[in-house]
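Example 3.2
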Amino acid sequence: VTVVSPRWQVVLSRQYGSEGRFTFTSHTPGEHQICLHSNSTRMALFAGGKLRVHLDIQVGEHTNNYPEIAAKDKLTELQLRARQLLDQVEQIQKEQNYQRYREERFRMTSESTNQRVLWWSIAQTIILILTGIWQMRHLKSFFEAKKLV
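Structure, written as tokens:
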């Protein structure tokens, strides 16, 4: 199992037997890649061998096992609920920060694209004006050579 962050940093790299569980915490927002590699040969798979993969991906406050936390920390039901609400608020805050980050990236991309479009249209206009000037001079010299002007 290899987990790679959006900045191409390896967050997790481990080998497991026939079964395994893994968890990781990332501090980088964005899309992470999870790569699973099998050590069995391709021929074994084609010969009727089966490879079964079950992924149960949990993100945010859903990864916490609250009954286990309550038992470990000896929390009352009210304290446990307060902790759940704090975790939810923290998750909402993280989501808002991620959306701000995405909005900033989108705005930078849009501004860059708008700037390129502006320069492209200016270049096209200059090329058209230069082509028009060249055509007028060429036609003028042509008519003077034919003595029509």
